[in-house]
Amino acid sequence: MDQFSQSVLTLVSILVVISTIFYFKFQSKSSSKLPPGPWGVPILGYLPFIGSDMNKLSQLASKYGQIYKLQLGNKLCVVVNSPALVKEVVRDHDIVFANRSVPVAAFVATYGAKDIVWSANNPEWRALRKVFVREMMSNRSLEQTYSLRKNEVRKSIRQIYENGKTAVEISMLAFQTEINVITKLLWGGLLRGADEEVIGNKFREILPKVIDVFGKPNISDYYPFLARFDIQGIKRETERYMVHLDKIVIEVVESYKKKFSRGVVEEGKRDFLQILFELKADDEDLITDTQLKALLLDIVAAATDTSTTSIEWAMAELINSPTAMAKAQKELSEVVGLDNIVEEHHLPKLKYLDAVFKETLRLHPVVPFLMPRSTSESSIVGGYTIPKGTMVFINLPYIQKDPRFWNSPQEFKPERFLGTEFDFTGNSFHYLPFGSGRRMCAGLPLAERMLMYFLASLLHSFDWKSPNDQKLDMSEAFGIMLRKSVPLAAIPIPRLSGSNLYT
Ligand code: HEM
To answer: Which run of H or of E encompasses 404?
Structure first.
């Protein structure tokens, strides 16, 4: 053993002894007030039993009920499993639970939590979120950018049609469509065909890996004093991905700066980056260059993987449920007509499809525990103490399938949402796939429109079947995202009355 390894070993041993003393001291002082939870082993707590399978985290609710705690290394983690206690967290004590618990990987990928998703609840976060929501998510702005979404969706429909009856890998198709929409909304004024493809491919290759790395159990997150050793190499792995992402975003920002300094403003092409530069010109302190990069990457990351995964689950459920597929297509035939293409103005009339979308996100909440919150001060939930700095998960897979609130909860039954008041605003505490409270999804208005529009276009333009006509494997891969373990490939069969409807 070399001298360096020996010193690391000695240091780790000393720190482990110190943390053991603290662990037991802490346990004996405050465990009576803390929520119940499974026993772990000394020092590691419950960490060895969770591993990388977040599904285990969800399932412990059947044993411990409304709320439970887990000691994961040095970190206290609380999982909330009932609507009544969700309300306490996201409504009654919203402000206390409005920080994020930021894994080392996310810290690296966001230039030190300078973005919207991972930032603490502070004035910079409020300013960024406000600008994003006001400038990109307002009704007016979304109306103005409809043609951009339409072009991308039509391009994808055309591509499917031209490829004939070859199986389509749905997540690839959805990712490509979504990334083109998002990058055009953000910096479309800069993009030309080839650049767009290069950027799209790079993002497709790297983004899901970066997002998955956020959910990987990392010793550094549970023992911050060991973070400097990066024992599993997760920090270094994230830094490697970031070299590529940072390069893309720097190129974009620099090209924009040049364009902006020349005063080139193309009519009708006022995208989000241009708006940010205009705001920056008025108030230099509003947003720093680092925040700008973090914000752009944040939106690309937050929008693409979530949307792609939702579309894949919706298509898989419909292919597995021919009755629901037939109902959704019948509604499209009636509202849109087989001699016409779907437009966004049809969406409010597509009640059954809306129910399909809601039921998909009930069964498969793509961000299963919401983004982990962290308490800014000690608080009481369900009569239990939640100390300052606790990592808090909201257990959607459990709550959204709890038989006390949902009949036949494991079944895909869109009808359960017809004629109900459920929406995505997070006001029903047993249905909140986009979160709730001040940290709820900031991209909801776009997500709702874009996903409904894309799904409607896929289902109206084609019949879909599984390649071998067998039931699809619906197993889930749990992490920070809830993905489909086996990617969906499906065969499209055109159903519209003329080939001109596919151009
Ligand atoms: C099906 C699609 C989507 C789902 C299911 C989804 C879900 C979520 C969830 C559960 C959160 C955390 C909420 C919480 O902690 O309470 C979140 C946060 C966020 N989402 Fe989405 N999202 C989707 C699409 C999008 C899109 C399209 C965008 C941007 C265009 C976006 C931008 C964001 C941002 C910026 C945040 C962080 C908000 C904050 O911390 O203040 N999301 N999303």
So the answer is: none
